[in-house]
Specification:
elongated; single chain; alpha/beta; 197 residues; seven-stranded mixed β-sheet
């Protein structure tokens, strides 16, 4: 299989690539994510950011273009607001308080660039997550784990935050940052030699 450039430093996405047995290298795309705080449509926003990550890698590697590039972006949408990665412990705590006892949406968009076709395919997945009511002490306990760092909405579903999640409608992979159903279909539809041939 041909290697894929993963335009992300996310350990969760790397874990999924390893699970799938995909050869990859990491080139985190540093892009302006200030659009997240501006709000708007979370599907459109994550799709735009995922594609921008791919474009950033293309820009950086223009002289030795890779065959495949994957970019992804995840946000949490609740109460008309969009939550990206918290910049501080205080912001993480505020996010968790707003999610407490409520349902929210998690949106992940994945962009896959095919060097042969010179095109980028982008697909999105939406999941609904129900949070139990959490107390101030529980939020402090969770913040002390540092799991909130570097993740949309200030929580990791595959970590201790699972203690607070009462229901998920949709793929947990979407919440973790790489919806495998959509990603697998993208690989297949774009001619990447993976899975049943």
């Amino acid at each position: 299989m041909e290697p894929i450039i993963l335009a992300s430093g996310s350990p969760r996405r790397q874990e999924y690539f390893k699970l799938m047995g995909l050869p990859y290298s990491i080139l985190p795309a540093r892009i302006d994510e200030s659009l997240v705080s501006a709000g708007g449509n979370p599907v459109k926003l994550t799709a735009e950011l995922a594609v921008k990550k791919v474009e950033k890698v293309i820009e950086v590697m223009h002289y030795r273009m890779p065959r495949w590039i994957c970019g992804a972006d995840t946000v949490v949408a609740a109460g008309g607001k969009i939550f990206g990665k918290p910049a501080s412990r205080q912001e993480a705590g505020d996010m968790l308080k707003k999610l407490s006892g409520k349902r929210h949406k998690v949106v992940t968009s994945v962009a896959l660039y095919s060097g042969k076709e010179k095109k980028t395919d982008c697909r999105s997945s939406v999941c609904t997550v129900a949070f139990s009511g959490v107390t101030e002490k529980e939020i402090e306990w969770y913040l002390n784990t540092n799991e909130w760092q570097g993740v949309a909405g200030a929580y990791r579903i595959q970590g201790l935050a699972a203690c607070f999640i009462s229901e998920i409608k949709g793929s947990p992979c979407t919440v973790a940052g790489l919806p495998l159903n959509e990603f697998y279909a993208m690989l297949r539809d774009n001619g990447y030699p993976y899975g049943a041939q």
